[in-house]
Amino acid sequence: MEQIITHFTDDDLYKFTMCCAVIDNFPRAQVKYTFTDRDGTVYPPGFAEALAEQVAALESVVVTDEEIDFMRRKCYYLPAWFYNYLKGYRFDRKWVKTWQDGDGHLHVEIEGSWAETIFMEVKVLAIISELYYVMTGLHDGFDYGAYYAKTYAKGQRLLEHGCVFSDFGTRRRASFAAEDTVVRAMKDCNASREWPGRFVGTSNVYLAMKYDLLPVGTMAHEFVCAIGGMYGPQMANHIAMNLWRNTFRGALGTFLYDSFGWDIFSLNFSEDFANLFKGLRIDSGDNREELMKIVEKYRSLGVDPTTKQIIFSNALDVDTALEIQGYAKDYCQPSFGIGTHFTNDFDGVKPMNIVIKLVAAKITESWTFYNDTCKISEDEGKHTGNPEVVRRFMDALHINAGK
Fold first, then answer.
1. How many CB atoms lie within 10 A of CB 330?
2. Is 175 exposed, middle or buried (0-12, 13-18, 19+ CB in 10 A)?
3. Whole-angstrom distance, CA of residue 15 vs CA of residue 21
4. Beta-carbon count within 10 A of 235 CB
5. What is the pLDDT of residues 237-276, one digit of tens each?
6. What phi, psi does 65 have (nearest 5°)?
7. What's the rounded mean pLDDT across residues 197-215?
8. Axis crossing angle, helix 221-231 with helix 236-248, rounded to the nearest 10
9. Do 324 and 287 contact (CB within 8 A), yes or no?
10. Which secondary structure element, helix H or strand E, spans residue 90, and what is its range?
11. How remote is the C-alpha of 387 from its chain's centroid?
């Protein structure tokens, strides 16, 4: 079987920015991640072994001078020392364990240095998704010509309605070719004439380089969740915001607030942070309700919410983005990160509902134990982590069980 990931920067930008922040603040931290398939998919026999082979093949993938040069031009906020780290970085299959149980369900565990294993999540998810369609034969029916036309039409609708948007679809794409087709179609559509809206770029650094676009992204939940495991969830957002601003000096100023729910974030989000960060990202909950919470919070701090960028990224499709654009533009500067709907929308193919989440951390390898952590979503039923840990964190944050 062909190697699925062949480019080091075939990954989301936020893995690079978080890696930089991790080395800057937690250079000796160790972490554990686990894989969850929310649909309980039964994988084909031999899938875990094929996945292990693809993970082992990552050991041949190293960053190129072309990739470094591109990131130096586009990612001005990354310090020079970080590129030296990337040049010396090597994947190691020993970090990843894969197996299937008797019912064919897939299990994946990742463990090791945070600064090293941080690059496994997106790549492993993208491998799992594409590998599943290859091994089930669904991949043979993908018509990329038709997919280009379908994507172009999506772009037209978003652009003519004034939407500012990006591709966020690497993790659960149907294939690398699918995401490549999406980015090419969106770039072509954006350049076809003057539009009220704008296609900003893609979270995928390699495809941003290939099509000379802006790599887009800041951070993921794992940065806050790991800190919550080390220090507790009550002040995790406060610590994360402080560390982030110290590392990037005001750049990359969109904060992902929902790792432990809105209520505790709101208590941590003081006027200095509200002024410092350019905006917030909504990744769970009811989009309108979350927006109004944010607007009310900004106003309570004397900050005009119309000066702030709010990125919506919660399971969006074109219709949802257009609906949000209709009301959000009166309250903020809305933009949209659209993932699976862009990169896994072939007719008759069900996108995979898979995640890999950080579940434990320790600040140094000399510790004899890990601290468990979890993610508490604004969407009921989408908390990730050991249920006992989720319950313990919710108790600490005074979140009722029905939420």
1. 10
2. buried
3. 10
4. 15
5. 999 999 999 999 999 999 999 999 999 999 999 999 999 9
6. -60, -35
7. 98
8. 120
9. yes
10. none
11. 23
DSSP 12: B
What are the tens digits of pLDDT across the range 225-246?
999 999 999 999 999 999 999 9
The DSSP bridge pattern shows strands 279-282 and 254-256 to be parallel
User: For residue 377, what pLDDT is reported?
Assistant: 87
| 3-class DSSP assignment, residue 350 | coil
List of E strands, 195-353: 198-202, 214-215, 254-256, 279-282, 309-312, 333-338
pLDDT of res. 1: 82
Per-residue DSSP letters for 145-176?
HHHHHHHHHHHHHHHHTT-EEEE--STT-S-H
Query: Using alpha carbons only, what angle is made at residue 275 by residues 274 and 279, rounded to the nearest 5 degrees?
Result: 60
Mean pLDDT across the chain = 97
Q: How far apart are the C-alpha atoms of 4 and 89, rounded to whole Å? A: 19
Strand 279-282 and strand 309-312: the pairing is: parallel
- Contact (CB, 8 A) for 70 and 209: yes
Segment 45-49 shows an average pLDDT of 98
